[in-house]
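Quick one before lunch.
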Amino acid sequence: MFSAIIYHLKEAKILKKLSHLLSICIGFTITLFVALVVIYFGGYPSSSQPIITNTPPIESNEYWQAPSLSEIPANDEGDLIRYGRELIMHTSVYLGPKGSVKPISNGMNCRNCHLEGGTKTFGINYAAVATGYPKWRERSGTMVDVPERVNECIERSLNGTRLNEDDEELKAMVAYLKWVGKDVPKGTLPKGSGVKKIANLDRPADPQLGKMVFDKHCIECHGANSEGQMEPNGKEWLYPPLFGEHTYNMGAGLYRLSKFASFVKYNMPFGTTFDAPVLTDEEAWDVAAYVNSMPHPTKDLSNDWPDISKKPIDHPFGPFADEWSEERHKYGPYED
Ligand code: HEC
Ligand code: HEC
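Model of the heme C complex:
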């Protein structure tokens, strides 16, 4: 009798367990179904909303190489491309303070930073421009196309005044930029474009140590006070200045320490290539700190980075989404 009761109790427990298991299964199936429905319908952005996330491109295996200049067609389009390249190599001759077309910029040439006309590996080349734009940019909080991106560099790196959409010079530079990246497949990030990032330091970058690096490795060309040296034509730089009134302003990419340090480590002293750097990471960060602690032209940046949570860590002007000071954002360290 007693054992029969226990038997029934056990059976009841098993039944309970079974029904419990069943309800879990049903619950799971419903959840899965709901999730699939949400993914299926929610995955498509509604047509009224702009797509503002850039699809991360796949990196190519081979280092990008620019097409040969002999591939520029011998027709009107080719003439425009050639004029565009000429403008990028000798910007100041046409658009500098003594420029023959109009004096709208500070005397630098695009190729002072976009080395070898924007074709050098990790020399801020133009490989990713033709296929990478228009794209959403957090700095402006807008969609940016190629002409607009050129104007951004004119207003910041060349501390100048933007060109008009219908200016021949803007059209020509855009034609060159599109031609130089013409063989890059859409959706791929050409290897060696932009700058090669260097590791962060675990201390702030130090302008005083940087001055020693500058004196040792840079003054020979850029000058003890960064005064630079003019070409014999008196219209463009043989050695461009790094700070002072004739150089990039505080809104330029190079005013951010990480960009400057990465650019310099893999390109300077002039002739350096990314596979045989001369400076150590520390020297590159410190010289960046020195150069960007020296005077640069100012720019109204109040409309930049409208979403402050998207400011890069080394953007040196507040307000910030975190508690760090402008000093720490400018010089680091960037990790705790
Ligand atoms: C003082 C240095 C400097 C000068 C001079 C300069 N730029 Fe730039 N440019 C930069 C930096 C830095 C970037 C950002 C690179 C990065 O984020 O990897 C950039 C980015 C660009 C880009 C976008 C590249 C990309 O891969 O998205 C274009 C296009 C461009 N510049 C065109 C020009 C043109 C045209 C000129 C001359 C009218 C010019 N730049 C002059 C420093 C400069
Ligand atoms: C042998 C000469 C030489 C030395 C040494 C040299 N540079 Fe340069 N640098 C150049 C030249 C030339 C350019 C412009 C490249 C062009 O137009 O093709 C340049 C361009 C630059 C630029 C971009 C343009 C600008 O004016 O902002 C930076 C930044 C720079 N150098 C930093 C440095 C730093 C930092 C050092 C020292 C670590 C250094 N360079 C050492 C010759 C030199």
